Amino acid sequence: MDGFIFLWVGWMAIIVIYFFEDNLKKRNLWLVFCLAAITGSSINLQLLAFSVNGAIVILTFAACVYVSALQKLSIIYFYFISILLSGLYFFIYYLVYFEPVWLYVPPLYIISASCFLVVCLLVKKLSNRLAVAVAGLIQGEIIFTVFLWQSSHPFSPEYVIGGNALLDILLLSMLFVFCWSKTEAFMEAVKRKWYKRQGHARFPGSRMHI
Fold first, then answer.
1. How many angstroms separate the CA atoms of 8 and 34, rounded?
2. How do residues 150-184 score in pLDDT, each as one tens digit?
3. Residue 115's closest CA among 145, 136, 90, 142?
4. The pTM is what?
5. Helix (H, G, I), strand (E, B), or coil: what is residue 53?
6. Buried b (16+ CB within 10 A) or exposed e, 147-178
7. 160: which strand partners?
C-alpha cells in the first residue's frame, strides 16, 4: 500500500485546485506542479551511489525556491524548524532499522502526527507550514540515507531516497496541516464576525508571519 496516500492526496489536490482556484495563473502553476510530482513518483534517478525518487527532486526544488524568497530572519527560523523535523524523522527511522524496538503504531502515523504538531505549533502561515514540512522531512530522509550507507546496512543498496514511504508521510503531514490551517482560518473569520457584531473596532491578537 506504499504510495497510495501520496497518489490519493495528490489527485484530490488536483481536483480541488482545478475547481476552486479562481486565479488562472496560480491554478495552472499548481496543476503542473502536482502532475509533475505524481509523474515523478514513478521514476527513480541514479545520483552517485544513491537512487532518488523523481517526486522528491521536484518537491525539494519547490521548497528551495519558496524559502529563497523569504526574509533572512524568516529563513533562519525556517531552518531551525526543519532541523527539528529532520531530527525527529531520523530518530524514528533509526529505531525501525537499528534498534530492536516494537512500534505498535507505524512510522507513517507517528512521523506525520509529530510533524503536524511541530509545524502547527511553531509556524502560522499555511504556505510556510507546508514548505517547512517538506524541507524538514526530506532533509531527515537524506541524513538517514547517508547514515544507512555509512553503516553498511543490508537495506542500504536497495534504499531509495524519497521512496513511497516518505511520499506517504509527506502528503499525509501536508493534508493534516492544510485541514488544520483551514479550520483555524474559518474559526478566525467567525471570531472576527462576532467581534464586529459586538461593536469592537479591532480584533484582538496578532499572527506571526512565519
1. 12
2. 887 777 777 888 888 899 999 999 999 999 999 99
3. 136
4. 0.86
5. strand
6. bbeeeeeeebeebbbbbbbbbbbbbbbbbbbb
7. 51
- Which residue stretches of the chain are H helix? 4-20, 24-40, 54-68, 72-98, 107-122, 126-150, 164-198
Which distant-in-sequence residues (6+ apart) come within 8 Å of 61 by Cβ?
A: none
Which residue do the cell numbers 524514528 mark?
92
Q: What is the mean pLDDT of residues 196-203?
A: 64
Dist CA 48 CA 45 (whole Å): 10
Q: Which residue has the cell 506504499?
A: 2
Contact present, 103 and 52 (Cβ < 8 Å): no
Say which amino acid occupies 105: V
Over 4-34, what HEC string results? HHHHHHHHHHHHHHHHHCCCHHHHHHHHHHH
Cα 183 to Cα 127, 187, 190, 203: the distances in Å are 15, 6, 11, 18
To which H or E segment does residue 51 belong?
strand 50-53
State the Cα–Cα distance between residues 142 and 75, nearest whole angstrom.
20
In the sheet with 50-53, reading across from the earlier edge strand, the strands are 44-47, 50-53, 160-161
